[in-house]
Amino acid sequence: MLIHVRKTSEVQSSEITDRRVYEARRKFLQTAAGAALGAAGISWLGMSDAHAGTKLNNVVKSRYSTNDPPNTLQDITSYNNFYEFGVDKEDPAQMAKDFVTTPWSIAVEGEVAKPAVYQLEDFIKPHALEERIYRLRCVEAWSMVIPWVGIPLADIIKRLQPTSKAKYVEFVTLHDPARMPGQKRSVLPWPYREGLRMDEAMHPLAILAVGLYGEVLPNQNGAPIRLVVPWKYGFKNIKSIVKLRFVEQQPATTWAVQGPREYGFYANVNPEVDHPRWTQSKERRIGEFLKRKTLKFNGYAEEVASLYAGMDLAKFY
Fold first, then answer.
1. Contact 77, 286 (CB under 8 A)
2. What are the boundaries of each domain within the chain?
3. What is the predicted pLDDT for the residue at 309?
4. Among 302, 268, 297, 285, which residue's Cα sits nearest to residue 68?
5. How far is residue 229 from each of residues 40, 44, 59, 155, 290, measured CA to CA in Å?
6. Using CA atoms, how far apart are residues 226 and 120, in angstroms rounded to an integer?
7. Neighbours of 38 (CB within 10 A)
8. Fold that domain 13-308 belongs to in CATH
9. What stretches of the chain show up as alpha helix (H) in DSSP?
10. Is the torsion defined by CA of 192, 312, 283, 6 positive or negative?
11. Which of 39, 57, 83, 212 has the most neighbouring CB atoms within 10 Å?
């Protein structure tokens, strides 16, 4: 399958949008020694403050970025869906500020040649980090443009060597109500679970993000590692991942279990298929007053529409 690659933006995100300092207090919780990440020598520092920025070195700019100007760091880190830390948009920034993400391990299970429990630094160590400016669209009809820093999911999968039986990848979020106070309420069936068909997971646009705006990923945005699949609605982009399972059957995913009439497995952005309680035809980008037309597959149709050729997208929503 040939994939058309968008032209790289010639403008660095730092030149488009100035980072605004939005909290005075910053604190760092450093590990005894910073773990080395990747051949580029990226230094990872554990931190307990969601707003404390630790620079990621030697991040390369990706050819897959959109030309849309990104939202500010203030926008991106203060308006979030992360029910593990509360259901209101402002809750995660407050409730996740002391969430400690080091050490962090990721279990790999199922139909794969290299099952193991990996420490985060070992999991991503062989892979170069890229900055990718992607659109994010949520079912509540709001959107942002975010300069993620991440690793192609396909690179990770190839390294883990799934077997021929692996048709899907399931992702699981940490379940720890003591650390994630939102899990003390039964608003969702915990732990949070998501999944991708294998060809979706192997698409070059899908990444595992570990940072944004060139810094370590803030807690409220899914630290220390989260999925970003830019042609799908935001709830598909699972945060704080602790497990990958390679499976033969389509996995049960959290929102599809919680509200099967409203949320399907695929969750592709589709302005032609309304949510039962609101239209998906328009969206409001955070920071803008007027709504804009929602683009099919969130504007990535040229790259990903072939994945769903022949499918009834109103049925497989």
1. no
2. 13-308
3. 97
4. 285
5. 25, 24, 20, 15, 26
6. 12
7. 18
8. Sulfite Oxidase; Chain A, domain 2 (3.90.420)
9. 13-16, 73-78, 91-95, 120-124, 153-160, 198-201, 254-258, 301-304
10. positive
11. 212
- Report pLDDT for 48: 35
Question: Which residues 6+ apart lie within 8 Å of 61 measured at CB?
Answer: 8, 12, 130, 131
Segment 236-258, tens digit of pLDDT:
999 999 999 999 999 999 999 99
Q: Give the CA distances from residue 238 to residues 95, 251, 252, in Å, rounded to whole numbers and listed in that order.
A: 18, 14, 14
Q: What is the pLDDT of residue 194?
A: 98
3 state DSSP class of 123: helix
Length of the chain: 317
Going by the DSSP 8-state scheme, the letter that residue 37 receives in this structure is E
CA distance 127 to 264: 32
Give the C-alpha separation, 35 to 44, whole Å.
Answer: 5
pTM: predicted TM-score of the whole model, two decimal places: 0.85
Structure tokens at 116: 């193991």
Q: How would you list the strands of the sheet with 241-247, edge to edge? A: 116-119, 105-110, 241-247, 168-173, 193-197
Q: To which residue do tokens 């679970």 refer?
A: 193
Residue 246 CB coordination number (10 Å)? 24
How buried is residue 216: exposed, middle or buried, by Cβ count under 10 Å (0-12/13-18/19+)? buried
List, in sequence order, every residue forming a beta bridge with 139; answer none if it has no partner: none
> How many CB atoms are located within 10 Å of the residue 178 CB?
7
